[in-house]
Amino acid sequence: MNSLETLYGKIFSKIPIASVVLRPENGKYIIVDANQAFLNVSQQTLQEMIGKDHFRVFPKRTDGVAVEGFSELRASFQYVLDHCEPDRLDTVRYDIPDKQSGTFIEKYWKPVNIPVAGEDGSTKYIIHSVIDETQKILSGRKASQLERKREKADRILSEISSVARIGSWEMDLVTNKLFWSEMI
Known about the structure:
Elements: H1 3-14, E1 18-25, E2 28-34, H2 36-42, H3 46-49, H4 54-57, H5 69-83, E3 87-88, E4 92-93, E5 96-97, E6 104-105, E7 108-117, E8 123-132, H6 134-164, E9 169-172, E10 177-180
């Protein structure tokens, strides 16, 4: 390995965007390298991944939970391989195996797949980079659930107030405005 390859290796390992290098081979996408950011988000070690097919290391769920990310990612890899052009996907759900429990961890990713062409112009490697969107998606889902619960509580309060013929009022101390229900 020459000094330039060593330098590129050091740079790749420090890039903060989770990235893995894949080598297309007979319908498989063999993992040849991964940076530390990818190891962190994937909960894998480099030794567990090197030389293995991406879809063996990160398999499709078989427990009946429908997850669209597996087929979308495979199609994206194939597009990059066939066209030697980058492909960017919208956020997809692609759950990863939890080594400790043997189950899957719900994950959402924003993937970008970039070809590395050989001298003949064909795709020799694919740089698969992902941004973990899980917290953003789950936080948004939780906020939506809380909003639905608040709306339900408001409807119930309104119905109870109407039946009991009870009114209520509220003072906004910032704007100095007074709000009251229909019963007042």
